[in-house]
Amino acid sequence: MKRRAKILLIMVMMVVASACVLTACGAKSASGEEKPVIGVILYKYDDTFMSFVRKAIEASNHNSATIEMKDSQSSQTMQNDQVDTMIANGVKALAINLVDTQSASTIIEKARAADLPVVFFNKEPEASALSSYDKAWYVGTTSAEAGIIQGEMMAKMWHDNPFWDKNFDGIVQYVLLKGEQGHPDAEARTQYALEAMANKGLMLEALELKAGRWESEKGKSMMEDWIAKHGDAIELVISNNDNMALGAIESLTAHGYFDQGQYMPVFGVDALPDALEQIKAGKMAGTVLNDAKNQGKATFELTYNVAMGREPLDGTNWKFDENKAIRVPYVAVTIDNIKFAAEAYK
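Given the sequence above, the corresponding structure tokens read:
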């Protein structure tokens, strides 16, 4: 009987130990408080911009929490299952980078059933979804702002560089690399960039406008097709993000652009380190800083606060807008302020 009792005791201790692994049982933060487990799920790890947001979340932790991080690999079904698993494992709060923004309500219902706070980041749910649950918030940007800043930057530089109008017809013949059909950021960046240029007095003609799913390889292959089709009739390349712009630059370079006076203005969004290098090299005209560092920082700070049962903005400098969202501002980036943009990735 004693041997049985010992075996039973060992088994119970193993179960408790396993539970502690999942829930950070008894783990203490640097400040001596019990560390909450925070579940963080990204729509896909290999998105270049989101990889910087992920690093910023981790860098903001300072041993205050245990972060359980997952990659949804662009599958909303996988993400839903990951949320279920994290809730079952006893996380204290969720931070979700949605695969499909239309699935926010599904995630919210799962969180509501567990009385769990949820912070969405980078991909913005509908305002009605956020307002439906008092423990749901958003961290990101104002999508239209990126388009407006990009459009105004392109308009100014077009006016400053009259030789960009190759056929001297007073019309901007452009191609546009769109991120993703129906994606809120892609739709807003496209619409407001073009509107901002028109508002600055430019006449526009779209030679091509297609979705490249934010990917460099797509940007490269699409640019390849457009050069073959339109040749030097293309006067401007607009991209919803730097990844696609970098792909386009690779294709343009292979066709002799940026050498011996043959030039093509290319504009992106994100101010990724690789894009900044292309600005220095004279191959990208400009981009828009999408501040990954502060998006990650705000996401962690908000999620940590609600996981600890505190007020969401406790001890931070962030503010909510009317939609319970923290908005991290965009900034135009050219060769003139490139050092400022580089600081966002340190």
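The first strand starts at residue 37 and ends at 42. Try to locate this feature in the token string yourself.
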